[in-house]
Amino acid sequence: xxxxxALASRLIAWxxxxxxxxxxxxxxxxxxxxxxxNWEIDRKSPLLKTVEPVLARLAKDGF
Length: 63
Hints:
Elements lengths: L5 H12 L4 H8 L3 H8 L7 H13 L3
Helix pairs in contact: 2-3
């Protein structure tokens, strides 16, 4: 099985630590749920302009 990307691992850890569903996490991050799902399973790589605010939020929360 392929190892998850750093982004996927951080997203999953953040979401689980906050007790959020994928839809709840997507809403909190202000992204579409299918975008979150694609990132979590490494189906698609995000564009920098899309992922910057998400990474900032994860870092703010310690992830």
